[in-house]
Amino acid sequence: MNKTQQILTTGLLLAAFAVIGTGLVAFTYDMTKGRIAEAERQALLQSLHSVVPPALHDNELINDQINISAPQYLGTKEPLAIFRARQNNLPVAAILTAVAPDGYNGKIKILIGINYDGEILGVRVVDHRETPGLGDAIETRRSDWILGFDGQSTQIIEQKKWRVKKDGGVFDQLTGATITPRAIVKAVLKALNYYELNRDMIFEKPVPEKQATQTGILNG
User: Is residue 190 part of a domain?
Assistant: First the structure.
């Protein structure tokens, strides 16, 4: 076999391996994409149910979603998801996605469950880069600090008291980490204000025919 034939043979082998490799990747993706999508769906549902328990609603939260852009209140220009909880077709709660843009190490993404009357059912952090051992106490697996929002509203706590105690408010700060809880308290209050101003729109706005159910939580 001369040099030209060797080059051609090598090229053909490399092309064959590339085609086979691409085919295997495509086959693997087709075989696993359904399971991946279901795993992501279950993870999203678990996050939603952590702030609005299943016992409070009989609709499918993921299928009752709208996307809203309200940077003044929700902390980002990107559209964020709001999930509506209903019982017998009546609105009972909304789950707002919001961003605290001024965390110690950057943006903190949160979910805020609010009942129809404007009382907080739960708040959870879904993404952050806060310092391990300090700012990460905003996670329920690290501390119960975030549970301090449960049952609160602007009717129970006046607006000017929605601050950490160091700033004259009613919410605890974290030992060695004031910036992080300060950012979350401010973000939760803004989300509450948005809900109070837009409650009717939130529950009446129709679900878009096509939407990304993970917008604002797992993406962006």
Answer: yes
